[in-house]
Design goal:
- It is extended, with a radius of gyration of 26 Å.
- The chain is built from 8 helices and 2 strands; from the N terminus they run βαβααααααα.
- It has a single domain, classed as GTPase Activation - p120GAP, domain 1 (Orthogonal Bundle).
- The termini are far apart.
- α5 packs across α6 (about 110-140).
- It is an all-alpha fold and about 200 residues long.
- Strands 1-2 form a two-stranded antiparallel sheet.
Length: about 200
Amino acid sequence: YCLQAKEHSRSNELSLGSIRLRISYSEDYVFPSKYYDGLRNLILQSANTKPITSSAAFILGEIVNRESAAQPLVRLFLNHGKLIPLVHALANWEMSTTIDPNTLFRGNSLLTKMVDELMKILGLPYLHDTLKSFIERVIFESKPCEIDGSKLRDGENVETNLENLYGYVKDAVDKIVNSALVCPSGMRDVFSTLKTQAMLNYP
């Protein structure tokens, strides 16, 4: 129904319009932590479940929107220090079923979504610390970097723009390389695990 002030309904003033709302209500019950112990322990055993496809974590990740499963799973396993074994098991299974290494991590897999979520949790602060000042400088200087001759503005030339682009890329790469020691250990551990599995499956 339309919401309308009572006094407006009895006056002859010009109407300013009406608004119609569609409201839905949902209610979730959250119990004390102890009631979830069984489910939590079952999920945390996923890395040791053989095959991994029969584990609770993998089954939870079979929903249509895998991101909805990846977010709580990453937080749960990260909090209990068991994320690396799970990533190892999932990576081993995914790589063993992927023939072409060029298509690895391009799909909508649970592993891909979990790595994405991990980078959001641990990587975002690191990214800000590493590249924020550089990005602010690029925006402030606003040097032209277009190297497509057909898109150059008046007064620009490809050689100068290429030098600008090269300088920015070099600075960005240098900042990333020099920040290796402050890269979050959780990310380094996950990437090391993925690299090891890739070398084993794609010699």
